[in-house]
TrEMBL record:
Transmembrane segments: none annotated. Pfam families: PAP_central (PF04928), PAP_NTPase (PF20750), PAP_RNA-bind (PF04926). It is found in: Nucleus. Residues 550-581 are annotated as: Disordered. This is polynucleotide adenylyltransferase. One of its GO terms (molecular function) is RNA binding.
Amino acid sequence: MAGQSLEDVYLLRPLNDALPTAEEKRRSRELEEFLRTSGLYEAVDEGILREEVLGLFNELVQTWVKGVCRKKNLSVEDARAHVYTFGSYRLGVHGPGTDMDTLVVGPRYVQRDTDFFGNEKHCLQYVLSQTPDVSDIQPVPDAFVPMIGIKYKGVQMDILYASLAMITLPEQLDLSNHAVLRGCDEATVRSLNGCRVTDTLLRLVPNQDVFRLALRAVKHWASLRGISSNVTGYLGGVNLAIMVAKICQLYPRAEASTVLLKFFILLKAWPWPRAIHLRVPEDHSLGLPVWDPRPGTRDSLALMPVITPAYPAMNSLYNVQRSTLEVMTAEFAAAADICTTFLHYRGGQSIDWSRLFTPVPFFTQHTFYIQVEVSADNDRDLVLWDGWVSSRIRRLVRNLEDHVRVRPFPKPQRPPVAKEVDADSRPRLLYYIGIDKRVAPAVTSQSLLPNGQLQQSAPGAVVAPASKVDLKQPCMLFVTEVTAWAAKRPGMELRVNVLRRANLPSWLLVDPALQQAAQQEQAATVIPASLLQEQRQPADKDVGSAIGASSVQGARRMAADERAVPAESTHGPDRHQLPAAKRMRVERAEQIAAKVDDGAADKFAAPSSRSQSPQAPFDAAAVDAMVPTAASIGLVTPASHEAHASQGLLSQDAKSQLEKQASVADERAALQESQLHNTGRDMGDWLGVDHGVSLATREASGSPPC
């Protein structure tokens, strides 16, 4: 790094400052029109209502501060507080129904713990509860940034409080002055940083109009792709604003359409955990902790650092985890591929922006789902309970990501009102987490040591799990921690359900085929908080549950499906010529059939209360990359197609098509075996010894197949 200027170290020099072309300006106008058509701009009446609410809230705050002064026997003559906005509303990129981030700045004798939060008459929380037009009051005093969420005349507001080390606040208070931070605790500094970061962002971008349009588009994309929630470990509003501002700095004269395309292309190639900076970090010797990525510090563990531009500089993406980083980088890569095709459009050709702004098919792309059900006796309790549970879901994700691939969906789903008389009519919300098997990394010559052993994984690296993963323990830890909340009220309940894709509620599914499969599937495995107790199942029961057999007839039928291959291929001298994958499947099916025929069918019978079984282990072996176990989600395997064909249930065209698919699968398995053998042979040549492995030799000697 010697010889480099700070601008080069923090990548602050423009990459391209060329003037925009007429074509780029036209595409920016088309982008704005697309966003307006998508309903991302609020109506004039809603904007007027927001201004009215801010005025009413400011009057309420002034009354509250004077009331605190009277309680403490202080003069009310110069008692005042200031109300500021920040976030999307201050940046000018808010849309219909979005919340307003609001900061209340008061004198030092008005404290957060005793005067802002609380149910005493002088507390702001109590004053808000007594205001007729205020509803859905949700205090979060233990959050990283303490706040109170409310709805004022239908407008959602998140209210923060900062107490400055001043007895009397001046009529005009400039929060960009670093002196306001003197004597403040960390929670107050974080609260003030919302306004300070927003104002600094607007000063650092070369063109605010371009910045606003590009940021509005990126926020819309992130919302559609299900990665727009800082609480869940994804991207929040301030994170996206800093990242878009970075692209605007690198392309200072570019139009919004160009900034949007470059945003995804650059982030696809960004070398995380390299931090994103908008300016050289400042240190004003106020004793406040600042961003410090040196080895051994807490900041050195950050996975996706995006640094705030205002002092004190800090990582705004501190909630990111391995699983959410994987999801976001994959989404950036997919969007970059689409944007690359846009860059190759000919002049005059309009961009189909709908290709980029497509919703994520979350409820159809995963094999298993974890459903977190949050319920309470009334809507008011549900707001409080949901705020606590949603802030802890990322801890469940952290406990799961070592075992499976995890993708949490940040938006809660509210089920439709039940029409049945006996149905549970209590208000509830559902959160979903998609889970799939982790794919083991390929074994290459670079991953082998000279002695033929695999290199050990780096600290913190994800290792492919065993064939079966028991999700009971992570769910138990999550439920135990969440239900131990000190403010939990009677009626607040939490249930954790493990669902297969076909078992998702039908109102969540868009694909009619999946809806039909969900109706035919049995009830999902449920892990209620009250029933999370360890129960052991015999090994054969696990086998039965893994293949989806719920009865003796089911086991017989599925074993017959696996054996439905030509007799000359599975018996006699030609049997070992089959690919190992198919040969192992046939042998396993024969073993299952033998157990059924020997009278062991009771071992495959699922318990009558299986739909409520809390301990059913997650069978990762049944989640084979992109193809889960057929019986688990209502699909049909080629082998079962052959069995149906033998019974005359399929047409000749269907039979020929299935035979062709089976042949392709066999050729693919044979190719994989050949590649494995060639890898061993190449390693033998490199080491000067023969490390080739003959699968036939192992089978002849009685060793298990590779």
